[in-house]
Each structure stands twice: as C-alpha cells, then as structure tokens.
Write the structure tokens for this entry.
Amino acid sequence: MTTTEDQNEDRADAMFHALADRTRRDILRRVLAGEHSVSALAARYDMSFAAVQKHVAVLERAGLITKRRVGREALASGDVEAVRSVGSMLTDLESLWRGRIARIDELIATPTERNE
Amino acid sequence: MTTTEDQNEDRADAMFHALADRTRRDILRRVLAGEHSVSALAARYDMSFAAVQKHVAVLERAGLITKRRVGREALASGDVEAVRSVGSMLTDLESLWRGRIARIDELIATPTERNE
DNA sequence: ACAACATACAACCAAACGGTTGTAGGTTGT
DNA sequence: ACAACCTACAACCGTTTGGTTGTATGTTGT
C-alpha cells in the first residue's frame, strides 16, 4: 500500500488549514510544551468551551495533536513529528527554488553560448 | 518601529492560509522554480483565469510571491525568504517541545527528589 | 487602426468557517 | 445517591472562501 499523492495533498490541506488560525497555533504551542486537558485549555481563551473544543478537534484531525482519555479528562499532546513533516514540505519547496538558482548560475557560467 | 505581535500573527495567518490550498501550493512550486506570467499559470489549471488570478493575489498578499510588470504581462516569482520564515515558525514550535522533553529528562535524572 | 491578448476587478453564489447555545452522557468526590 | 465536572456533538448564524461570469483597461503585432 502506497499513499497516493491526493492523500498527501489532503494531509497538507488539513495541516496548513489547522495552522492558519492564531488560537489553534496558540493551543498547539501549549500542548507541545506539555499535556493539557481540553477544559484547562479552554480556560485560557475568551471564547466558549465548545469553540476551543472545536479547535482542538481540527488540530487532532490534522494529526498535529493526539488525545488520550484519563478518567473524565481528555489530555491533548502536540505531535512534534507532524510539525516536522510540515517543515519538510517547506524545504521541498525550497529545493525547487534552488534548482532555479542552479539553472541561472549555469547561464552565468557559460554566457552567450551558441544555443543548442 | 518594532513590529507588534499581532502583526506577526496576521502574517502567519495569511501565510498558512495561503498554503492551505493545493492549487496555491502548486502555483507556488511553479513560481519558485521560475518566473511565470499569470496567464501561463492559468493555462495549467482546470478553472477560470479569474480564479487562478485570485489565487495568485492571495499568495502575493501573504508575501509568498512577488509580481513584476513586463509589458502586458505580470510575471510572478516565488519568494524563498518568505517560505523560510514559515519554516522558522515551525522550528519555534519544535523548540517548545524540546523544552518539554528537557523537563522530563530532568525528572528522570533526579527521581523522587524532596519537592522544594 | 484595430483585433487579439493579458490583466484587474466587481458582482454574484454555494459551501466552509468560526463562533454561539443547548443537550446528553460518562466520571468524580462527598 | 447525587451534584459538580469534563467532554462531545447537534443546530444555528453571520462572515469568509473559492469558484463563476462579465466588464474595463492597457499592450502588442499586423
């Protein structure tokens, strides 16, 4: 079983979308620094518990955090590997740029060459 | 003049939002690899010219690409520095996680210490 | 001069988003 | 037993998003 390209793009969509909200980024910071229950997180923000819970759910669906049940609490924890996988998508982009620069350098190295 | 934290968060919102669409990520790949006119880009996708133009505008507002006018064409080019700045936001997140791990290691190093 | 081309932008529309309140079910402490 | 607590989720609502078509304006080549 090999993951299709569409699945990767779906994952990228979900991850970047999850990161495109400052409340969610803030939640992610907290749960990367340590486990927090959903209600402990909710206490930090000026919005309803349900709103914060939705943000947590978005982060979880994107794979950026995981939750484990302990009694009546749901403890959320940031997944650093997922964060790194987003970073590697960006370095992949950078490598495209490097290819472009390499091509330009090539042109400079051999100026006014007979073309082909 | 120092940029406020809110402005940084606004930039982050815009950048992650811009990256949270596969068409826009694809456009960004192309213009990181080399300059392309908006209509040359539009020809690649199964949607209207106006739709692609909007995607380019979103990327431009986020600072991920720049455009320069050459005659009747607008040539778009990817800004690798902006891509790197997104990457550094992610490594900042990672460092929070490292702090957490450091704290755990500390606990393991000095088990059952008298608590202060 | 003028037709073809490239861009920009407004107006519109369905779908998704980010918030709300309300309801329901499992867990805990007394 | 039961009140307080934690979580989950549905229903609703205004705004934003991603697409469309249409129109206006500038540029190029013949």
